[in-house]
Amino acid sequence: MLGFILRRLLIIIPMALLVVSVTWALIRIAPGSFYSNEKTLPPAIEANIKRKYGLDKPWYQQYFLMISNVVRGDFGDSLKYQGESVNDIIKRHLPYSATIGALAYLVALMVGLSAGIVASIRQNSGFDYGSMATAMLGLSVPNFVLGPILVLVFALGVYWLPPARWGGMSNLILPVLTLAAIYMAYIARLTRAGMLEVMRSDYIRTARAKGLSETSVLLRHGIRGGLIPVVSYTGPALAGLLAGTVVVEKVFAIPGLGNIFIQSVLNRDEPLTLGIVAFLSILIMVFNLIVDISYGILDPRIRYD
Amino acid sequence: MAEEVRQLKGTSLWRDAWKRLLKNRLSVIGLILLVFMIIAVTIGPFIILKTTGFTADYVPSQVDEGDLVNSFPPSFQHPMGTDEAGRDLLARVLQGGRISLLVGIISTIVSLIVGVSYGAIAGYFGGRIDNIMMRIVDVFYAIPYILIVIVLLSVFGGPNAPDFITALSERIGGAGNQGMSQIFLLFFALGLVSWLTMARVVRGQVLSLKNEEFVLAARASGVSTFGIIFRHLVPNVLGPVIVYATLTVPSVMLTEAFLSFLGLGVQAPYASWGSLAADGIKNISIFPWQLIFPSVTMALTLFSLNFLGDGLRDALDPQTRKF
Amino acid sequence: MRIPDKYFIKSVLLSVLTAMLATSCATEATSRFYGKTEAPKDNVLRYISGSEPESLDPPVATGQPEARIMMALYDGLVEYDPKTMDPIPGIAESWEIGQGGTEYIFHLRHAQFSNGDPIKAGDFVFSYRRAVSPELAALNGYLGYYIKYAEPYNSGFVFVKDANGRFLLKSDFEEAAADRAKPAPDSDGGTEFHKFLDSPERLTVPSTEKERADLDPKIKAAIQGKEFVPVKAEDIGVEAVDDYTFRIKLRQPAPYFIGLLGHQLFRVVHQGTVEKYGKAWTRPENIVTSGAFLLKEHRPYDRIVTVKNPKYWDADMVRLDGIEFYPLDEATTMMNLYKAGSVDAMYNHTTPAAWNEVIKQFKDEYLNAPEVAIEYYTVNVKKPPMNNLKVRQAFALAIDREAMAKYRKTTKPLVDFTPEGIFPKYEEARTKVYTEELKKKGSTLEQWKAREFDPVQARKLLMEAGFPVQQNGNTFSCPTFPVNQVDLTYNTAESNKAVAEFVQAQWKQNLGITIPLKNMEWKTFLSYRKKLEYNGMARAGWVGDYMDPFTFLNLFYSETNDSSTGWWDPKYDKMLDAANNELDATKRFEMLARAEFMVMQEQPVIPLQTQATNWIKKPFVKGMYPNPGTLHAWKFVYIERDPAKWDQNVENIMAERDPWVYQNIDRITATQKALVEQHKTVAE
Q1: C35 with C121, same domain?
Q2: CA neighbor of B138 nearest in space, from A5, A289, A258, A246
Q3: Are the C-beta atoms of residues C380 and C547 closer than 8 Å to each other?
Q4: Which domains are present in chain A?
Q5: pLDDT average per 10 residues of sequence, chain C (684 residues)
Q6: Number of domains in chain C
Q7: Which residues, 6+ apart, have CB-to-CB distance to C586 below 8 Å?
Q8: Model's pTM, two decimal places?
Q9: Contact A186 B320 (CB under 8 A)
Q10: Which residues of B touch A129 (CB under 8 A)?
Q11: Does the CB of C135 have a partner CB in chain A at under 8 Å?
C-alpha cells in the first residue's frame, strides 16, 4: 500500500509537467497575446514588450526556460498584472475559493448523503420522490439563475443578507448555498443509486443471513459500498471546487481563483494560466489518489497490487 | 457478435424491462414529456413559422414608439412573450431546445460509449494499465477546456476550417452558414470532456465488483475478457451509470451556456436554453417571462429525463421488487 | 405505488413560485430612489471601477478602469475638468505654448509627494523619461511619442554622426522639408540641452542591421560607415529649466497635446520609491503618491482602499476622507450592490440595456450623456464583394440608425467618424466644410444627412454594383449577392450581440440579404480582424484618448493604420499633417473635417452610433458628472448629507452649476487665465 502511494505521488510531477507543456502549447497556438488590444501597438512598443518578457527568443529556448522555472516552482510574474508573482496570486486568492468550495461541499455532503441514503432505504416512497425531485431541481436550475434569485429574495427583497462581495459570515451564506445546490443534487442521486446497487449484492445478503440487524447491515456494510460512486465523483469535483467556480465568484464578486483562472486564459496571461494549471493538476491527482485509497477502505473487495 | 448474444437471451429481459418501465407512472410521464419535447423542438419552429410567421431570429423592423420596452409579456400572439429585441420567445425556446437537446444527447452518448468502456477496461485490468489510463483522464481534467475550445475554434473554425467541416456544416445548415461549424466544434469539445467523470465512476464500481463471485465464475467458465467486461460487469454497474448519465445532461447544457457566454458556443441570433436563461436572469426584475419560460422548459425536460432514467434503472434491475 | 405525482407537480410549482416571489420583491418602481439610499456615515465614496487594474503604476496601466484609480492616486501637470474634460491646472499652475506649438513651458506650484518630498520639475523629467523608456515597455508609451526623440528612444534607435562630428538631420532626406515652416530657434535658450532640443531634428535609424534593411535606399547609402550614437533617455524633449519650470519640446505641433497630459502616462511618480522598490513600489506599504489620495489597502479583485492625502497641494479642498474602489465588471452584481446601498456610484456602460427604461425613471440617479466613443463596423475593402465602394455604401445606407438608437435606448445615430455632440466647435466647422464639398459634387447637406437611413438609394447602389434587389410584396431578396463571402463578425458581448442582430435584421429587411453573424472570443477576434482575415464586416469601437477629433481621424493615418479595413490613402495623411501644423483652431478643424469627408466618401467603415455614458450614482454623491470619458477628478466629488441639497433631475446636471465646484474651478484656473491675459496685453 505504501509503495502504491509512493509511486502515485512520484508520478504526479511528470504528469503535472506534461499538463503544463500541453497547456503552454495551446496558449501559443491560441490567437492573440496578452498585450493585444483594440489599439494596435506600434512595432517598437511590441518589440520592447517581447524583449522584456523574453518572447523574442526561439520557441524551444522559451519552452526550456519555462519548464526549468516550473520545476523550481517558480512561474514568474503575471503578464497582465505586472509585478505580481504568480505564486503570490495563487496564494492570495486560493483561500477565498477554498473556503466557499469546502463549505459548499460540506453542506452538499451532509444533505446529499442523508437524503440519498434515506431515499434508497425507502425506495419509491414519498420521501424518495420528493427528495429526488428537489435534487433534480437543484440540478436543472443553473447556478447563474439560482444565485441571482437568492440575491433578489434575501438581499434585495428583505435586505437580510449582503448581495455580493467578500466580508463576514453573512456574505458566505448565499454563495455557499448556490454552489452547494448542484453538488447536493449530484451526491444525493449518486448515493441513492450506489446504495440500491450495493444493498442487493452478495455480501450484504451474507451479512443479512448472518442475522445482523437491518440498521447495522446498512451502516456497517451498505453505506461503505454505496458511497463508491460518490467518492469517484468527489475527487475531481472537490479539486475543482477548491480551485474556484467561476459563475458563483462572478455573481457574488468573490475574489477567488476560478474567475482569475478563466480571465488568465482569456487574457493570454501565460505564466498565470500555467501556474494555476500546474496547481490544479497536482490537486486533481492528489485528490484522485485519496479517492483510490479510500476505495480500499470503503470496500474490502478493492485491492491494489 | 454482441448483437447476436443480446438477441439470444435478450428478448425476455428487454421485454420485461419495458413492462416494468410502463408500470412506473412517473417514468411514463417522463418518457411522454421527453418525446413530446423532442417532437416539439423538431417541428415546432416550422409550425410557428407557418401560423404566425415568427422565427427565432425575426426582429421587427420598426421599434414601437408607443411602448416603453420591446419585450412584451405573454399574449395570445406570443404565448411566451418576446425578448428584448421583440423576438417571439416561443420560437426561440423551441429553436434553443434543438441545440440544448443535441448537446445533451451527443455528450451523453459520448460519455456512455467512451466513458463506460474506458472506465470498465481500466478498472477491470487494474495495475499499470489502470494507472496509465486514469492518469490520462487526470491530464484531461487539468487542461483548461476553454483553452481547448479557443484553440479548436481558431484552428478549425473560421477561414482555416478544414474542408470537411465546412462541407458538413453546409450540408446540414445550408450554404454559407458558418455558424454551424462552430456548433459542431462545440459538440466535439463538450464530448471531449463529458466522459471523464463517467470513466472514473465506472472504474470505481468495476474495481469493487471485479472480484465478486459472478465474475470469477465467468472467468472460470472461459468467458473472454471482453465478454466479462461488457456482458457481466457493465450491466451490473448500470444503476450508477444511468444516474450519472442523466446528471451529465444538465451539466453539459450549463457548460454550453457558459461557453456561449464567453463567445465560444452557439452563434447569435440563435440561442440555447442555457443562454436564454442566462439572458433572462439579467432581466428578471423587469421581464420575468424571459427567465421563467426557458427555465421551466429546461427544468421540465431534465425532470422527465431524470424520472425516465430512474425508471430505466429500476426496470433493468431484476431484483427490484415493484408494488 | 403511492401517488408520488403530487411531489413532482409540487416541485414544478415551487420553481415557478420562487421565480414569481423573486420578481414581486424586485419590482418596486414606486419609490423615488433606486434601492436603499442613505448617505454613508463616513465621508468615504464607494465606487465600482471596472475590471481589476493591471497595475497601480501609472504609465504601465492602460485602460479606463485603471485611469479612474490613477486619478485618485497621482496628479499630473494638468487635471481634467470634471464636466468638459478640458485641461485645468494641476501641479502646473500655468503654462505657455510657443515655437509654433512645439514648445510647452509649465510653471509648477509648490506641491508635495505623500511622503513630504517636494515635487519639482526634475520629478516630471524622471516620470516622462521612465514612461517612454524601452525597459519599462509601457503599452501606452506611444502617447509620449509627440515628445521630441521619445519615439526613437522608445524604439532603441540611434543618431547618425558623420566623420566631422555633425549629426545627420531628418530634413536632409525630406523633399518637402524646404517648404515646411521651420520654427525660429529660441534666442534666449540658455543651456546646451535647450539648444539641442531647439535645433533641427536629427535623423534616427534602427540600431540593428536587420531592421535597417527596410530603410529608404537614399538613407541607407548616406549612413554607410557613419558612427551610430544611441538615443538616450537624456535626449528626449523634456527639461527642468529650474526646480519649478518644466519644458516640453514636441517633434511636431500637436494642438491636442495639452489635453493629453491628464492621461495617467503623464502623471508624476516619486523617483526614490520607484528606484528603491522596483516592481514592488506600488504595494501599499511602499507606495508614495502625488494625488489627492493615498493607497491604504489593495486586495486584488476585491477592493482598493484609498484615504485622503494630507500632503496634497490642494488638500484643503478635498472633501472625501477616502474612496473605496471595487474592481467588478458583472453588471447584474453591481446593480444589486447599488440597490442594496453597498456602493454609491459606478463606471460607464453599467446599466444593462434592458433595464434602461426602468432605471431612467430614477431621474435623480441615472446619468446618460454622449461619450467620446463611437461604434462602427469595419469593412474589409480588400475582399470582394466589399471592395466595391457601391456595395459598402449600400450596406451603410440600409441601416435605420434612428430606429437603432431607439432600440438601444442610450446611443445616438452616427454617420461620420467622430462622435456627435462631443466637439461642438468641430461640428460647426464640419457643417461648413461639408456644405462646400457637397456643393462641388452637386449635392446638398440635406441629401448627405439622409445617409442615416436610405434604403431606396441602398438598393439602387446595390443594383449598380451588379446585385439587383428584387421586391416581392413587402420583402426583398437579392439572390445574386454572394452571402457566403460576407460575414458580420463581432467579439462576444451582450451589447455587440444586440447591435449585430439588429443590423442583420435591417439588411435582411431592406436589402433582402441575410449576412451570417459570427461571434468570437475577444483576443481571437482582435487577431482575426487586425490581420484582415475577416470577410465583410467586423465590429469596432473606439474611445478617444483625448478630447480632440484627431484621436478618431488618426485611425486611418499611415499605411500600417489601425482601422483594420485595409484602406489607406497617402493624401489623407498629408491632409492630417497639414491640419496639425495649423495654429488657428477653427482653420485646423476645417482641415480635419475635409479629411473626414474624404474618408467617409470611401466608406471603409460603417458608422453606427455615438456611445453614451449610461451609469448611475446615488443622489448624495455630488461633483461627479457624466463627462465624455467618465473620468472623474476626485477632488471635486463630495458627499452631501442634507437631502434637500441632493442632486435632482440629473438629466440637466451638465447645465447646472454647483457653486462649490465652480468656485474651486475658478480658483484653480485663475493663474492660467491671468497668464493668458498677461500675454494678450503684452502682444497688444
Answers
A1: no
A2: A289
A3: no
A4: 93-266 (1.10.3720.10)
A5: 41 51 48 85 92 92 90 95 93 90 93 94 96 92 92 92 86 62 55 85 87 84 87 93 94 89 94 93 94 94 94 93 92 89 91 81 89 94 91 93 85 91 91 90 81 90 92 86 89 87 88 87 88 91 90 90 90 91 89 93 94 92 92 94 89 89 93 86 75
A6: 3
A7: C425, C429
A8: 0.87
A9: no
A10: 26
A11: yes
